[in-house]
Specification:
Largest sheet: 8 strands, mixed
Distance between the termini: 31 Å
CATH architecture of the domain at 182-295: Orthogonal Bundle
Bound molecules: 2-acetamido-2-deoxy-beta-D-glucopyranose, calcium ion
Low-confidence stretches: 1-24, 300-314, 318-343
Strand order of the largest sheet: 7-8-9-10-11-12-14-13
Biased composition (Acidic residues): 325-335
Strand content: 5-15%
Order of helices and strands: HEEEEHEHHEHHEEEEEEEEH
CATH class of the domain at 182-295: Mainly Alpha
Radius of gyration: 56 Å
Coiled coil: 152-223, 364-391
Mean pLDDT: 85
Domain MRH: 407-510
Organism: Leptotrombidium deliense
Structural class: alpha+beta
CATH topology of the domain at 182-295: Recoverin, domain 1
Region (Disordered): 304-355
Length: 526
């Protein structure tokens, strides 16, 4: 506590001394750079050349020069400029109307030398804070620069690897192209063969289908005749191989009007109104009339329908039929399971391919697969080649330091919006509300857009979604040095033209100015 007071007192003493010294050296409010114009041994010439006055009229609190240059240390002239030296911090120019206005403007209190305001010299405090800020900036700069160096090394490596890979790919694409052409020729030949084989196969299937249908009709007829023969045998009571109408009259199922008697006409009806029929005529005509009635089960003696009632064996008029398993229509070409492998061929799944067709289809399938495999490899290699070519053609900065930002996206959220920035790709914006999906494109990467002497300090994105009744949106991204990559601000300074501020190690090339350097810029010597 005590030592702090002491040091404060010491600082005050020192600054007072300096103030006194400087006041002796030049009139109050005059910057060092203009000291030579204020020589107490000569008359004073107004700096704008508007007149010459005795030196005692300088800072006499009366305005003599039009430009106010005779009153740098008072508020007498409306246009005057007062210069604070601010030892320990940065010098400052203020309008001279603020001199002795009761408000402390200069940190060294020099603007209030004759006022009731109680100003405290806090230049040292400000100077210290500025210095600390500077040290912090320096740490950021060197940290960022290290990262930038890494970016550059990585980029160099990636470019070399990409170039080597590109060479490799060029060779590979050439090889694959040759192979692809070869496989394509094989595939085409196999496909032609397959097409022919499938056409043949289809023709055969159609042929077989027709044959099959004919056989089915034939089979039905044969069965019908057999049923007729069986019924004939059953009804021919006296076994004279002639069916007489009287023989039908004992079967009540032929009673059509339901009076319990089978009349002559009712019986004859089944014989086409004839008295009798032999087997052959019955099979052709009579059975067709009788069939619906014959199987009616009206009496105990009713004959159940049976395909297998046979005539006496060996009698040619009552042929016996063997019923072996139906011959397989496709017998000769049979293969256990049909395996149509090509849906495009629309094969009949009930009919298996013959071995030769099957083999041709398999060969074609293999040829197609092999071609597809090589083709896919070829396409992949080509697209990889394109990607690498694009990469190598992109301007990633003087030392390719921006390559590190490729493939990365950054977000920035303010109260209203969530902004995204994908360097070398695009920018977008969407509502910052939870779950919002409506993304608006703010533009796609176009070019570097910094000033001519600092081209890589900004990036331009154009061709975003058009504003309502307005131009397409665009973004200018301004880069500044930082230890990490992040958006520090996003705004829309003019309609549809957005601005992002982005910190990145990629631009940490020049150290920040030190407070001393800043002073030098203002041509001050302290
Ligand atoms: C300070 O101001 C008073 C009144 O405004 C004036 O009379 C006096 O001369 C001034 N002193 C200096 C040193 O300018
Ligand atoms: C922007 O680029 C990124 C990265 O390439 C991509 O994933 C995204 O879909 C793009 N967005 C728009 C709106 O084009
Ligand atoms: Ca004057
Ligand atoms: Ca003031």
């Amino acid at each position: 506590m005590g030592s702090q007071l002491l040091s404060t007192a010491l600082i005050l003493a020192v600054s007072i001394t300096i103030c006194k010294t400087t006041e002796v050296l030049r009139p109050h409010g005059v910057p060092l750079s203009k000291k030579i114009f204020y020589d107490p041994s000569k008359d004073f010439s107004c700096l704008d050349g508007s007149g010459t006055i005795p030196f005692r009229l300088v800072n006499d609190d009366y305005c003599d020069c039009k430009d106010g240059s005779d009153e740098p240390g008072t508020s007498a002239c409306p246009e005057g400029i007062f210069h604070c030296i601010n030892i320990g911090f940065q010098p400052q120019d203020i309008p001279s109307s603020r001199v002795n206005d009761g408000i402390c403007d200069c940190c060294d209190t020099s603007d209030e030398y004759n006022s009731t305001a109680e100003c405290k010299n806090d230049c040292d405090k400000l100077g210290k804070a500025a210095h600390e800020a500077y040290l912090y900036q320096q740490r950021v700069f060197y940290g960022g620069k290290n990262i930038r160096d890494t970016y550059i090394r990585n980029a160099k490596k990636e470019i070399e690897e990409s170039q080597a890979r590109l060479e490799q790919l060029r060779q590979k694409v050439a090889d694959l192209e040759a192979m692809k052409n070869e496989k394509e020729a094989l595939k085409k030949a196999a496909e032609v063969k397959e097409k022919v084989a499938l056409a043949n196969y289809k023709a055969k299937v159609d042929r077989n289908k027709r044959k099959h249908n004919e056989q089915e009709i034939h089979e039905a007829e044969r069965e019908d005749r057999e049923q007729a023969a069986s019924a004939f045998l059953d009804l021919d009571a006296n076994e004279d191989e002639i069916l007489h109408y009287s023989e039908l009259q004992s079967h009540i199922k032929f009673d059509q009007n339901g009076d319990g008697v089978v009349s002559d006409d009712e019986a004859k009806f089944f014989l086409h109104m004839k008295d009798e029929m032999d087997l052959n005529e019955f099979q052709t005509i009579g059975w067709q009339i009788m069939k619906p009635y014959y199987f009616i089960d009206k009496e105990t003696t009713t004959v159940k329908p049976s395909r297998y009632r046979r005539g006496p064996r060996g009698d040619p008029r009552f042929p016996t039929y063997d019923y072996p398993d139906l011959p397989d229509e496709m017998g000769e070409d049979q293969v256990e399971t049909p395996k149509p492998t090509e849906p495009a061929a629309t094969p009949d799944p009930s009919v298996p391919y013959d071995d030769e067709t099957k083999q041709i289809i398999d060969v074609a399938k293999l040829a197609k697969e092999e071609f597809a495999k090589i083709d896919a490899e070829y396409q992949n290699a080509q697209s990889e080649m394109k990607q690498i070519e694009t990469l190598l053609q992109t301007d990633f900065g003087p030392d390719n330091e921006f390559m590190a930002l490729r493939k990365r996206c950054f977000e920035f959220r303010d109260r209203q919006y969530l902004y995204t920035f994908c360097p070398f790709q695009n920018c977008s914006q969407k509502s910052s509300e939870e779950g919002a999906t409506n993304e608006v494109s703010l533009g796609n990467w176009v070019r570097w857009s910094g000033p001519d002497d600092d081209k890589y300090s900004a990036m331009k994105f154009e061709g975003g979604q058009s504003c309502w009744n307005g131009p397409a949106r665009s973004v200018q991204v301004y880069f500044s040095c930082g230890e990490t990559n992040h958006i520090t601000g996003a705004s829309e300074p003019s309609r549809c033209e957005y601005r992002y501020d982005f910190e990145t190690p990629a631009v940490c090339t020049k150290p920040f100015e030190s407070p001393d350097e800043k002073r030098k810029d203002k041509h001050e010597e302290l």
